């Protein structure tokens, strides 16, 4: 009679440990890139960019187009660095320059 209760207690305890460890791990990154666009994209077609999470296996930049698409590109590519600099320096509508 004690053996089934012990087995059930051990099972419930193990289930609680697994649930707790999964909860502490948290949710994964929202978006990671597995394939990359190698073709340079015109700066005029882009509206912004974001970096993928550090929790992704491969570092990537998500370029946002005027058409609403997101393209995965390698941040080490020279043209990507140039596009990121261009977008960083681009003044937003309604903003005035202090130069």
Automatic annotation (TrEMBL):
Major subcellular location class: secreted
Record CDD domains: Chemokine_CC
Name by which UniProt lists this protein: C-C motif chemokine 13
Domain of life: Eukaryota
GO MF term (any one): chemokine activity
Keywords of this entry: Cytokine, Secreted, Signal
GO biological process entries: immune response
Annotated Pfam families: IL8
